[in-house]
Amino acid sequence: MSARILIVDDVPANTRLLEAKLRAEYYQTATARDGFEALTAATNWQPDLILLDVMMPGMDGFECCRRLKGDPATRHIPVVMVTALDQPTERLQGLEAGADDFLTKPPETETLMARVRSLVRLKRLLDEWHARSETARALGLGGDPFAVPSVAGTRALVVDDWDVSASAVMDALPKEGIVAIRARSGREAMGMTLEESFDLIVVSLTLAEEDSLRLVSAIRGGSRTHETPLLLLAETEAKGQVVRGFELGASDWLMLPVDENELRARARNQIRRKIYQDRLRLDLGSVLELALIDPLTGLYNQRYLRRHLAGLVENGQGRQMSVLMVDVDFFKNVNDQYGHATGDQALRLIADTLRANTRVFDSLARYGGEEFVVVMPGADREDAVMAAERLRSAVEAADFTGPSGQRVVLTVSVGVGCATGAPVTPDALLHAADTALYVAKAGGRNRVELAALT
Length: 454
Ligand SMILES: [Mg+2]
Prior knowledge:
- With 454 residues, the protein is an alpha/beta fold.
- It is built from 16 helices and 15 strands.
- It has 3 domains: 1-143, Rossmann fold (3-Layer(aba) Sandwich); 149-282, Response regulator (Rossmann fold), CATH 3.40.50.2300; 293-453, 2-Layer Sandwich (Alpha-Beta Plaits).
- It is 47% helix and 18% strand.
- A hairpin with a 4-residue loop joins strand 12 and strand 13.
- The mean pLDDT is 88.
- It binds magnesium ion.
């Protein structure tokens, strides 16, 4: 997965080193020499990730991070602070400035790549999520199911037989609201994963009695854990084990002794990514569609239409607007005579005919069984009656054949509800169209009637 990465450092040798490593993995890079350049580049180039040095003349990394996270144009871009080793206070300051993760200087290749991959994946999920939330807003769905998820209440399994590191982890996670549960062996841990589900698994690579990497492999192979974020705890000298852990599917690693802030940041990122992934898997697009689209005809449903109409009226478009209520004549006879499959085909044909004969800015919905509604913003009574007449004659002319090849004539009656300048409510418009429809039915069907609201 390629991505754009902005490298910010005042020492050219540092930026060159990072650029070389990232380009070797086919990432696109750009560089900035101070905080001011970084802000401009972040806004204009819109990178997927920013690697930010802390000590820089002019504006330091903390201030730069604060500004990036305070600007709506850049706040969604993950920021990794590149700090000196053994500086817990710097990390805390970085967290407070809104940093998403940390790297120690000079970063080793495996660690750098693991962080980059992880954060770029998170960014992609966020981008997809924002795109869908825009669509939902455009469809007029209320609420905000798309807010950044909280990790509070999620559950982490901590597998560590060494009390010192285990208690550091067990103390740190609850500060993020994460419920931490400890297992002292791989066997105990695997048993627990069968009983309950976890949002994060932390595995120490220093287990005394067993091979930690075998456990990593078992977790990745488990049906309930193969996608659970997996964080390794390792001694600095156990580099080979960490690399092997990544190959087996670990998500990230943390150096022992555990730095509380680093652990909290990593745990938070990993769990959020899982939450986004789970939500995307629900395929929100189709959930939205199911809620708003009639599956038989592909038209909007009544729920969408009412919402849309209310929105138009709220926006002041209700003073000049028409609503057509279109009902299929003697539809029960079609069902009775030819069966429901044929009835469904007839409804689909009528839906297609209506769609082909309405303007792009009109909204068309299947309102009920054999009833359709067209909302025509800006249409006066002449426009609306003309449109209704066009729909009526198009349906009458449509070629519909029954199951044994016979031609079946379908017709519709149309009631037109029309607002003529005074403020209206959605219900009043629909009611007027319905009243007119009743008159059209009573008057012999296959005809158009008008009810104007004054
Ligand atoms: Mg520097």
